[in-house]
Write a structure and sequence with these properties.
alpha/beta; Rossmann fold; 6-stranded parallel β-sheet; 6 strands; globular; binds flavin mononucleotide
C-alpha cells in the first residue's frame, strides 16, 4: 500500500482524546500533511481529558485546539487547523485529491450524520466526500454499549465503504501502560490508511512485550 501524504483528521466529542493526539503525531511523523478539524464537543473532551481543565465546556475552544496540536508533539508546519463550519476548505470537495480521512474518536452523533449524509459541518462533509469518491474513510467509534441505532448506522457506513473501527484495543501484546493501548488502536487505524508507523508490535514478529500478570498488577 502506498503511503498517503495528505490526510484529514476529524476529532469529535467521543471519549478518547488521547487517540486523536497520538494519531496527529504519528501522521506527521510519517510525513503526512494533516488537515485537522475539531468539533465543539471534540474541543470539550480534549479540554477535559488531555488538558485536565475540568468538566465545563471550554471558553476558548480555539485555544484548546492550539494547545492540543502543541502538546500532541506533531511536527510544526505539518498541521493545518480547519474551521468546523469552513465548507470552502479543499477537503469539502471531491476535486481535492486527499486520499484518506480518519475520524478519531468518532462520536455516535457524527456516525449518525455520516450514515445519513447530512453533511452539516466540515467533518461530516469530508466523510461524505470520501465515501462518494470511493476513498478511504476510517471511523474510530467510541461508545458502549451500542444501541440498535448505533449498530444500524455502523452497518450503513460500512455498506457505503467506510471502515468502522471501534476503539477496542487488544491485550495480546501484554500491555503494561495505557499509552500502549492507545498506540495499538492508532496503529490499526494507520494500517488501514496506508501510513507507515511503529506503534504496535505485530503478532509473530518477535517484538511482543514481556508477559505480565494482569491480576497481580491490578489486584
Ligand atoms: C466528556 C464527554 C465525553 C463524551 N463521550 C462520548 C462517547 O464516548 N461517545 C459518544 O458517542 N458521545 C460522547 N459524548 C457526547 C458527544 O460529545 C455529543 O453527542 C456531541 O453532540 C457530539 O458532537 P460531535 O459529533 O459533533 O462532536 C461525550 C461528551 C462529553 C462532554
Amino acid at each position: 500500500m502506498a503511503a498517503v501524504t495528505r490526510i484529514f483528521l476529524g476529532v469529535t466529542g467521543a471519549s478518547g482524546a488521547a487517540y486523536a493526539a497520538t494519531a496527529l503525531r504519528a501522521l506527521t511523523d510519517a510525513g503526512c500533511e494533516v488537515g485537522l478539524c475539531v468539533s465543539r464537543a471534540g474541543a470539550h473532551v480534549i479540554s477535559h481529558e488531555l488538558l485536565l481543565a475540568g468538566r465545563d465546556s471550554p471558553r476558548d475552544p480555539d485555544g484548546v485546539i492550539r494547545d492540543f496540536v502543541t502538546r500532541s508533539g506533531a511536527a510544526p508546519g505539518m498541521v493545518t487547523v480547519l474551521g468546523l463550519e469552513d465548507l470552502t476548505a479543499p477537503f469539502a470537495s471531491g476535486s481535492s485529491l486527499a486520499p484518506a480521512a480518519l475520524i478519531c474518536p468518532c462520536s455516535g452523533s457524527t456516525l449518525a450524520a455520516i450514515a445519513h449524509g447530512t453533511a452539516r459541518n466540515l467533518i461530516h462533509r469530508c466523510a461524505d466526500v470520501m465515501l462518494k469518491e470511493r476513498r478511504t474513510l476510517v471511523l474510530m467509534t467510541r461508545e458502549t454499549p451500542l444501541s440498535l441505532i448505533h449498530i444500524e448506522n455502523m452497518a450503513a457506513v460500512t455498506r457505503a465503504g467506510a471502515i468502522v473501527m471501534p476503539a477496542a484495543p487488544g491485550f495480546y501484546n501484554n500491555p503494561t501502560q495505557v499509552s500502549q493501548l492507545v498506540d495499538f488502536m492508532v496503529g490499526k487505524a494507520l494500517d488501514h490508511l496506508g501510513v507507515p508507523h511503529g506503534l504496535l508490535a505485530r503478532w509473530g514478529d518477535g517484538a511482543m512485550g514481556e508477559p505480565t500478570d494482569p491480576m497481580e498488577t491490578n489486584p
